[in-house]
Design goal:
single chain, 201 residues, alpha+beta, Glutaredoxin, two-stranded antiparallel sheet, 5 helices, 16% strand
Length: 201
């Protein structure tokens, strides 16, 4: 009996090592799924937001476009940037640029109006044609999932994820991945070289 156990020992050890090696080589599943052993990375196409009327707006409809995402406000010192954003939209939309505004009231209550009032303000004062969505939060526990993703994909100064102020901008490439974050004070027109580069891909 003792001889049988001793002989079986190497066999059992070999089986255990083989099983461990197989487990180590197996693809590791994540919340975003796996493809050919590699985790699928999220992009903006995975998100659905709310439009100004409260309806669903799937960002999957933007596939193949370069997208500029901006948190906006109507009573901010940077509010005149609406004009620059609209100018970018008019200049490059035919080449594949989409601009999307997300009103947010988290910064000194500078976006106090209703969604309807915001839409009226944008059209009347700046002739905005690009879509301005329903009001959201961009920081804290109530932050919209899209912004949770954007902030992690492109951090701000010293690696901070938090949005610092109105009119922070995110440029997204044609594959739905974030290229760069721009500070509130960065004027829309200064983004043209990066936008042209992204459109040229």
């Amino acid at each position: 009996m003792k001889i049988k156990l001793t002989a079986a020992g190497p066999l059992l050890l070999g089986l255990a090592l083989a099983a461990a090696a197989s487990a180590a080589q197996a693809p590791v599943k994540s919340e975003t799924g796996t493809v050919k052993g590699k985790a699928m990375e999220k992009n903006i196409y995975d998100f659905t937001v709310k439009d100004a009327e409260g309806g669903d707006y799937s960002l999957a409809g933007l596939k193949g476009k370069v997208v500029l995402v901006v948190n906006v406000a109507s009573k901010c010192g940077f509010t005149p940037q609406y004009a620059g954003l609209e100018a970018l939209y008019k200049k490059y939309s035919g080449k594949g640029l989409a601009v999307i505004g997300f009103p947010c009231n988290q910064f000194k209550n500078q976006e106090p109006g209703t969604n309807e009032e915001i839409q009226h303000f944008c059209r009347l004062n700046y002739g905005v044609d690009f879509p301005v969505m329903g009001k959201i939060e961009v920081n804290g526990p109530g932050a919209d999932p899209l912004y949770v993703y954007l902030k992690k994909a492109a951090t701000g100064f010293l690696g901070s994820e938090a949005i610092k102020w109105n009119f922070t901008k995110f440029l997204v490439d044609r594959e739905g991945k974030v290229i760069r974050r721009y500070a509130s004070a960065t004027k829309p027109e200064s983004l043209e070289p990066d936008i042209e580069k992204a459109l040229g891909k």
